[in-house]
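Apologies for my clumsy wording, but are you able to produce some protein sequence, whichever is easiest, and the tokens describing how it folds?
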Amino acid sequence: MTLAVLGATGFTGRLVVEEARRAGLPLRLVGRRRAALDEVARDGEEVRVADAMDESALREAFDGASVVVSLAGPFLELGFGPVTAAVEAGAHYLDTTGEQEFARRVHERFAGAPVAVLPSFGFDYVPGDLAARLAAQQVEGQVEGPLDEIAIAYSVKGVGTSKGTRRTIATVMGQEQVTYLDGRLVPSRFGERTRKMHFPFGEKTVVEWGGTEPLTVPRHTDVRNVHSFIRAPAVASVGGRLGPLVSPVFKRLTRFGPSGPSAESRRKSSFTVVAEARGPGGTGRAVLAGSDVYGLTALLIVRGAQAMIAGEARGTGVLAPAEAFDVDTLVESLAPLLRVE
């Protein structure tokens, strides 16, 4: 029951590999450079050389694996081949993309896949999807009909970024986004909407961000409107209009800086995710909090892979986190990096 890790030599890839070892999962490390893979691999672990752009080599590398996780980004440039190869190899698929546009296209292209396909199965954006389900459960069934709205907001503190994350941010700034309005996806942009939301540490301004919750939440919850926000000053909405202009500059800057935050920095970091559900029957609210977003991403990937290998994924094709797995069980398995407040 092998977990194939594409991008095993990157910052997040190494964390996934370490977490998988702790869980006792047999590993297959996949990447472009044999020497780099050999540095990460331990005795008894399989190594396969394949470029993210070479679907034939990827299919061969993934053959016989139970689950494939792709950490090869930017995903709009490099991500579609690994999904295709994993599905054709008969392996369940997970990735860590933070790119909403990539996730949206995966939802469209692989809806009928014979295996489970879950893009964005990391800190981007599993906590928001789980919090949305927990909030919705508090008001569903009180009256008939869909909920009016679910709003999800992220706040992070002291979180350094890896080079891959910096590339993703630069890429997303130049992309079109969507949000879920009146039962359908409609074009949006970073900062198009701002509002105040209540966090455990007070009321804060949040701005709309291209999370994947507008794609995933309507899969498991009957709701008319879904919005994903991040905590930021209201002035940040100006950045949404300038995104396509400044994105190339940010892409050049991603070449500088450390490969990722130190272990101490990760331990000291924190995050809070709030979901508010509103419907005819009242309102619901859920708060998830924790530390170390990179460690949480690695733990999520491994917990997801374990559940898939155990046959616990509830369905095939593209699935939302709260659709594929029992929410309470998944949240409990992520302690101490994630908790309900």
Remarks:
- The domain at 126-291 is CATH 3.30.360.10 (Dihydrodipicolinate Reductase; domain 2).
- The mean pLDDT is 90.
